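Handout, page 2. Input:
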Amino acid sequence: MLIFSSIPESRPRTAMEIKRDELNSERWAYVYDAKDRIKKSLRSPSTAEFDCDIRDSRIEGDYATVTGKVTAVNAFNAPITSSFRVIYLRDPMKPIEVTFDGETIVLDAAEKAHRDEKHETTESLQE
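Output:
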């Protein structure tokens, strides 16, 4: 006896679903780049274990931010957990600031100043 399972009808995706998928894809790109960038700064990159995924990324206007934690073996062969944050300019995808274990490295001072100015203006409008 042959039994056919029901195959759900495919429907076109809505504009909202397409936009959500595009944003999720963009957010994953930032997460992967941030992990790679942080991994390169570790003493033992092969030991890196990240606590960071798409939920740890945000896109706001022209900027994207990825935050997370990484555990890796240090010079004394002990596992150390450190936090990180990478802020990107979205178009083109360009990191402008990296904070790792409390130390901030500004990669693009002019863009960071512009971002900070926009952020302060937004906060003062909300008060």
